[in-house]
Design brief:
Elements lengths: L4 H17 L2 H17 L3 H22 L1
Length: 66
């Protein structure tokens, strides 16, 4: 079943408008809540793997700036 492209575009516009109306604190809170919800679906091993990728990325960034 294909989704209606016009409806998809309208939904994206609504999300953009809502995002512009929210404060930085509200956006941050929503992001944290979403991240926690996504993390609940992951196994412990998968969460650890993702965390290690983040550590490696930070290290690469740090070494590139010095």
């Amino acid at each position: 079943m294909k989704k209606n492209p016009a409806a998809q575009q309208l939904g994206r516009l609504g999300g953009l408008v809502r995002g512009k109306q929210l404060t930085k604190a509200q956006l941050s809170e929503m992001g944290k809540k979403g991240g926690k919800a996504r993390a609940k679906k992951l196994s412990t091993a998968e969460r650890r793997r993702i965390a290690m990728l983040g550590v490696a990325a930070r290290e690469r960034k740090r070494k590139g700036k010095t």
